[in-house]
Amino acid sequence: MAKKLIITIARQYGSGGREIGEAVAKKLGIPLYDKEIITEAASKGDLNLQVIKNSEETAANSLLYTLAMGSNYAGTTMHFGYKMPLNDKLFILQSDIIKSYAEQGSCVIIGRCSDYVLRDEENLLRLFIYSDLDHRQARVASRHPEIKKSQIVDVINKTDKRRSTYYNFYTGNKWGKYDNYDMAINSSTLGIEGTAELICAFARQLME
């Protein structure tokens, strides 16, 4: 019987990390969790889904406020009677949901600091997917034709900055730093399918 294995994927915007995760999950026959995490968090916390989608991965705006007010992640309210900022509440809700998914069995989880949230899991494969800028530009252009070509690099940089700020703030680690992951893979080298195959080969060894 195969061992349980949780695969977490952090990724640069435009690197194809989500598509790689989908391919890995399909090849290994295990579930993938991504957008449903935030949907379930909204339901569990009785929050407006659109509001939390707009606030997701934007901890930069709440950082100074959180520090000033003394956020307490273990509870649901701030010191001095202030309510916990939405980003903090959302992080706690998502963390609980991610842990519940991991308890159910092998799976692939995309982003949302899942490598940090599940850091105490015995069988955890933490991946970071990056890619050459020209490949990222081409991918973003093909997926989002509404974005002007002259704006693509700016969109990539701003999205990565938001992800980095969110991750660094809530984990105390550095997003994309190699020693926070078990594998960092340039998806430009093997492409989506080849990168997925490489990850599956590694995962199957760990699941034996």
CATH hierarchy, class: Alpha Beta
Report the portion of residues in β strands: 5-15%
Lateral strand order in the biggest sheet: 2-3-1-4-5
- The arrangement of helices and strands along the chain is EHEHHHHEHEHHEH
Q: Structural class of the secondary structure composition?
A: alpha/beta
Tell me about the largest β-sheet.
Answer: 5 strands, parallel
Average pLDDT score: 85
CATH superfamily: P-loop containing nucleotide triphosphate hydrolases
Q: How many individual β-strands? A: 5
Number of individual domains: 1
The gyration radius over C-alpha positions equals: 17 Å
Distance between the termini: 8 Å
Number of helices: 9
**Helix content estimate:** 40-55%
| CATH fold field value | Rossmann fold
CATH-derived architecture: 3-Layer(aba) Sandwich
* Global geometry: globular
Give the oligomeric state.
single chain
Low-pLDDT segments, ≥5 res: 59-82
In short:
The chain is an alpha/beta fold and 208 residues long.
What does this structure look like?
The N and C termini lie close together (8 Å). With 208 residues, this protein is of the alpha/beta class. The model is unreliable at 59-82 (pLDDT under 50). The longest helix is centred in the C-terminal third of the chain and has 21 residues, at 187-207. The chain has a 5-stranded parallel β-sheet with strand order 2-3-1-4-5, sandwiched between helices. It has one domain (6-207): P-loop containing nucleotide triphosphate hydrolases (Rossmann fold), CATH 3.40.50. Helix 1 runs parallel beside helix 9 and helix 2 (35-44) packs across helix 5. The chain has helices at residues 17-28, 35-44, 49-55, 60-69, 86-104, 114-117, 133-143, 152-171, 187-207; strands spanning 6-11, 32-33, 107-110, 124-130, 183-186. It is built from 9 helices and 5 strands. The radius of gyration is 17 Å and the shape is globular.
